[in-house]
Automatic annotation (TrEMBL):
InterPro entries: EMP70. It holds the Pfam family EMP70. The chain crosses the membrane at residues 195-219, 259-287, 293-317, 329-353, 365-386, 421-440, 452-478, 490-509, 521-554. One of its GO terms (biological process) is protein localization to membrane. GO terms for cellular component: endosome membrane; Golgi membrane. It is a multi-pass membrane protein. This is Transmembrane 9 superfamily member. Keywords: Endosome, Golgi apparatus, Membrane, Signal, Transmembrane, Transmembrane helix. Belongs to the nonaspanin (TM9SF) (TC 9.A.2) family. It comes from the Eukaryota. It is found in: Endosome membrane; Golgi apparatus membrane.
């Protein structure tokens, strides 16, 4: 069984880990005459894996004692490279039979306790592999370094170094099916689960308060108004129209820039479909710990396929609003998210190339992604758009719209769009705040996240909270005789994405030790894209919730 090896650069802090990835032989290890690389899948390449076959030969049930890997004389430049790697906490990441193992490159010691500025840098030169097997299956592998075998690289001077390793095989009763359990235990520790369940309980309490408030408004205000109107067959008879009741002729007036709204709703529907699909696969156990590349591959393919959902949703809704230029809507739907994402990717890929990081995708992988977009995403988008055009349906408005729009009364400053967005995003963000720590730690700190079931529950609670907040904000807007709720409901729902992007600043400065151009640009670049996707998704959920609420509300009255 070959041992695949890679190296990760890690800047470690007490609170959080942040990392960059580089090829193993970027450092001056003993390089073989012929460097053999592992064939990576699309997802593994997207994940930054650039594995090569290691110089350590681990043969099944063959023990080795102090086997010499190589001997070499390090130049001054090579010594400086190793010293920098040790100072920055570089560690090696290897895979044996798909089992991951790690080892630090070296250690830093204080030469004198009374002088904190004096440090000694050493690289480990002796690796100890301990492998457990059950019959003909590898169950577990551990890697240890021997501090007594370390070479001093403190000074810029040539050093002779000898790399050695030992291999010990031991039998175990652990079945093959449970060999990954030790990698998932960190996410399922009791104190971690208590935090997750506390987050869910907190979200449930928030939803209960929202439902109570909306129930009170319905019982005390809406129910009374609807009952009064139901008694009068002539809506404008002997009673004065005030509040939301006076908007029956304008509340379903089509919004401005309906082509842009339709495209945003189509793309938001696609984001929702992608999220539901990924979480469902996670709950079903498709994404196993360190099953490298499965999640990125699934994300790319699902996004391409669900382009049909985006095209259908955008074009069908645009036709309901009596739009005619459906091709413009379809093209805008295809580019409203993917174009900013592609621009961000090409910029960050250029940065990674300049730094020599394995986060930079090779040209052939970029070509594969572009082909997937051209041959799968675009045809799916076109198919969905054509289907949305052919399956025509009229806009369901229970009230007729007047020819002349009603003037919106002057509103207080706190009823402006920006203020309402700030208020609307607080509660949905509070629902996911605790869970965000674990998600960020998994994505940016390279920790293991396996409890997709809890994440799915939190996601459902987020959607419910977004719906309830949207309904409440729309009602209060209509109560002030403001009928321009279309865009407002979308922006208020999507404001949670802006809170998410704001949280990324807190995470960057307070919870991580990220620094440098590459780490900063990668973090904020991709967080901007993720936050934008959340903005579109939750904005779509919010809009459709408000649309349903308005239809039900005005369907209870007779407006001619």
């Amino acid at each position: 069984m070959p041992l695949h090896i890679g190296i990760k650069v890690e800047m470690k802090s007490l609170s959080m880990q942040t990392s960059e990835t580089y090829a193993y032989f970027e450092l001056p290890f003993c390089r073989p005459d012929k460097l053999e690389k592992k064939n990576e899948s699309l997802g593994e390449v997207l994940n930054g894996d650039r594995l090569t076959f290691a110089p350590y030969k681990l043969e099944f049930l063959v023990d080795k004692d102090a086997k010499v890997t190589c001997k070499k004389r390090l130049t001054k430049e090579e010594v400086a490279q190793f010293r920098t790697a040790v100072a920055l906490d570089y560690f090696v990441q290897m895979y044996f039979d798909d089992l991951p193992i790690w080892a630090f490159l070296g250690k830093v010691e204080k030469e004198r306790i009374d002088d904190p500025n004096e440090f000694k840098y050493h690289i480990f030169t002796f690796y100890q592999f301990e492998i457990y097997y059950n019959k003909d299956r590898v169950i577990e592998i551990n890697l240890r370094t021997d501090p007594s075998f370390a070479t001093d690289v403190t000074n810029d001077e040539e050093v002779d170094v000898e790399f050695r390793y030992t291999v010990v095989w031991k039998e175990t009763n652990i079945p093959f099916e449970k060999r990954m359990d030790k990698y998932t235990m960190s996410s399922s520790l009791p104190h971690h689960l208590q935090i997750h369940w506390f987050s869910i309980l907190n979200s449930c309490v928030t939803i209960f308060i929202l439902v109570s408030c909306l129930g009170t408004v319905y019982l005390r205000v809406l129910r009374r108004d609807i009952y009064t109107l139901a008694q009068d067959e002539e809506f404008s008879g002997n009673q004065e129209e005030t509040g939301w009741k006076s908007l029956h002729g304008d509340v379903f007036r089509y919004p401005k820039f309906k082509y842009l709204l339709s495209s945003a709703l189509g793309c938001g529907t696609q984001m929702l479909a992608v999220m539901v699909a990924i979480l469902s696969l996670g709950v079903l156990g498709v994404f196993q710990p360190y099953d490298r590349g499965v999640l990125p591959t699934a994300l790319v393919i699902i996004y391409a396929i669900t382009s049909a959902v985006a095209g259908f949703s955008a074009v069908s809704f645009y036709h309901q609003l009596e739009g005619s230029n459906w091709l413009r809507v379809l093209l805008l739907t295809g580019g409203i998210f993917s174009c900013p994402l592609l621009l961000t990717f090409f910029f960050l890929n250029t940065v990674a190339l300049n730094y020599g990081s394995t986060a930079a995708l090779p040209l052939d992988t970029i070509v594969v992604i572009l082909l997937l977009w051209v041959l799968l995403a675009l045809p799916s988008l076109l198919l969905g758009g054509v289907s949305g055009k052919r399956i025509r349906s009229e806009f369901q408005a229970p009230c007729h719209t007047t020819k002349c729009p009603r003037e919106v009364p002057p509103q207080h400053w706190y009823r402006g769009v920006i203020t309402q967005m700030a208020l609307a995003g607080v509660l949905p963000f509070a629902v996911i705040y605790i869970e965000l720590y674990y998600i960020f730690a998994s994505v940016w700190g390279h920790r293991i996240y396996t409890i997709y079931s809890i994440l799915f529950v939190v996601f459902i609670l987020l959607l419910i909270t977004t719906v309830l907040v949207s309904v409440a904000m729309t009602y209060f807007q209509l109560a002030r005789e403001d009928h321009q709720w279309w865009w407002r409901s979308f922006l208020c729902g999507g404001s949670t994405g802006l809170y998410l992007f704001g949280y990324s600043f807190y995470y960057y400065f307070e919870r991580s030790d990220m620094n440098g151009v590459m780490q900063t640009s990668f973090f904020f670049g991709y967080m901007a894209c993720i936050s934008y996707g959340v903005f579109l998704m939750l904005g779509t959920v919010s809009f459709h919730a408000s649309l349903l609420f308005v239809r039900l509300l005005y369907g209870c009255i007779k407006g001619e």
